[in-house]
């Protein structure tokens, strides 16, 4: 409707102390895209593709930044604040964690278990300290399903889990323990492994305690009613709720929940970046540990031969 000359004239009248010429406008239109603008567009494309993934869509700007680095971007090309700015422009953001609910009912006694952890959820190697807890999921029907997790303190790997509609020890806690025992037995040994939990009746029960004793585990519990004494397990529950349950349509059945949990656990163990692990995955941390151990053994053998 208006020519470039007419628009420039109107803009010149509107701006005090400045002017826009027809020649300058045409030169601007022909100017090639700058390297910075092109890099920003490429970053935006990768960020959008990342957040199209159901699980990675929960990443905030810090994990998004480290995920971009793992995908091949150089730290000289992309910065954390730059990712934050681009995510704001795209209107994408990560999921925020909330307070984790309590699900286990405290037993009347601790079953004679001491607290061997004292809120120090650190280990020097995989399968030295496992933490266990149970969380609930409301189904579409209004009923509840329950998920038990056992997490390795060193690698943050979920080494055992199960879903059930019952809180009986044999249905919810024991299957997760059996899975964790198999994992630890294949890769290391269960002897001397600290098994930490809260005072839930499932974990203090005779059948559960007997299985712990049979495999040489050291049972440990925190104080009654204090979630900080099992903070690492609570953190796993919180991530589960934030990254899967709250972002998913209400589950119809426990079987549907179980399949979704299987997918989440696989992602959590093998592809999810963990801030506590310096933005590595549990699988990467374990691989590095066993690789270093193998190198130490080979070096020790060579030194003995020499």
Automatic annotation (TrEMBL):
List the molecular function annotations (GO) for this entry.
nucleic acid binding
Q: Which SUPFAM superfamilies match?
A: Ribonuclease H-like (SSF53098)
Query: Residue limits of the Integrase catalytic domain?
Result: 122-290
State the Gene Ontology BP annotations.
Answer: DNA integration
UniProt xrefs under NCBIfam families = transpos_IS3
Q: State the function annotated in the UniProt record.
A: Involved in the transposition of the insertion sequence.
Q: Which PANTHER family match?
A: INTEGRASE PROTEIN (PTHR46889:SF5), TRANSPOSASE INSF FOR INSERTION SEQUENCE IS3B-RELATED (PTHR46889)
What is the name of the protein in this document? Answer: Transposase
Species classification: Bacteria, Bacillati, Actinomycetota, Actinomycetes, Bifidobacteriales
């Amino acid at each position: 409707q208006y020519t470039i000359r007419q628009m420039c004239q109107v803009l010149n009248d509107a701006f005090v102390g400045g002017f826009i010429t027809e020649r300058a406008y045409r030169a601007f239109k022909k100017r090639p895209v700058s390297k910075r603008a092109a890099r920003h567009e490429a970053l935006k494309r990768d960020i959008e593709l990342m957040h199209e993934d159901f699980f990675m869509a929960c990443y905030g700007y810090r994990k998004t930044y480290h995920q971009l680095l793992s995908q091949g971007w150089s730290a000289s090309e992309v910065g954390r604040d730059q990712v934050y700015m681009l995510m704001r422009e795209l209107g994408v953001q990560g999921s925020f964690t909330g307070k984790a609910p309590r699900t286990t009912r405290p037993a009347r006694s601790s079953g004679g278990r001491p607290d061997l952890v004292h809120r120090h959820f650190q280990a020097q190697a995989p399968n030295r300290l496992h933490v266990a807890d149970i969380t609930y999921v409301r189904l579409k029907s209004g009923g509840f399903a329950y998920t038990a997790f056992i997490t390795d303190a060193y690698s943050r790997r979920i080494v055992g889990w199960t879903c059930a509609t019952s809180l009986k020890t044999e249905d919810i806690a024991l299957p997760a323990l059996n899975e964790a025992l198999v994992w630890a037995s294949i890769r290391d040994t269960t002897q001397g492994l600290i098994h930490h939990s809260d005072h839930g009746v499932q974990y203090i029960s005779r059948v559960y305690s007997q299985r712990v004793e049979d495999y040489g585990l050291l049972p440990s519990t925190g104080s009654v009613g204090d979630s900080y004494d099992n903070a690492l397990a609570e953190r796993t529950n919180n991530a589960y709720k934030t990254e899967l349950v709250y972002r998913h349509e209400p589950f119809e059945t426990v079987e549907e929940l179980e399949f979704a949990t299987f997918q989440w656990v696989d992602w959590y163990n093998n592809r999810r970046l963990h801030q506590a692990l310096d933005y590595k995955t549990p699988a990467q941390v374990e691989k590095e540990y066993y690789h270093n151990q193998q190198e130490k053994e080979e070096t020790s053998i060579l030194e003995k031969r020499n």
